[in-house]
Amino acid sequence: QVQLVESGGGLVQAGGSLRLSCAASGRTFSLYEMAWFRQAPGKEREFVSAISRSGGSTAYADSVKGRFTISRDNTKNTVYLQMNSLKPEDTAVYYCARNAYGSKWSSVREYDYDYWGQGTQVTVSS
């Protein structure tokens, strides 16, 4: 059983920055692509960013491209999301997820991910 635990969320003013972390249990972290999703109030969960197993390839939703950076440290079983120039529309619960074996590594579809964290709240005030 894999556990994903997010941290780093909080309240920040527009234009500010936050760094989210997602720590994974188990010994196979480096074998899986990882991603971040988010869900705003009243909206469906949406893809934010994904990273390949080595960290050499990344993908972003258009809405965060140029502002967010995904990275990972396989020695620490952790994936990060650096969020800069935050906007009120970035307010959401942010989830990390493990890509299911055999799925497209940068899939934007929820059902291509088999393990999810509990989420961390990010609130951006205007």
Principal-axis shape equals globular
Please provide the ordered H/E string of secondary-structure elements. EEEEEEEEEEE
Query: Could you tell me how far the N terminus lies from the C terminus, measured between alpha carbons in angstroms?
Result: 40 Å
The SS-based structural class is: mainly beta
Quick recap of the structure?
Helices cover 0% and strands 48% of the residues.
Written account of the structure:
The strands form 2 sheets. Strands 2, 4, 5, 6, 9, 10 and 11 form a 7-stranded mixed β-sheet that branches. The chain starts with a strand and ends with a strand. 0% of the residues lie in helices and 48% in strands. With 126 residues, the protein is mainly β. The mean pLDDT is 96.
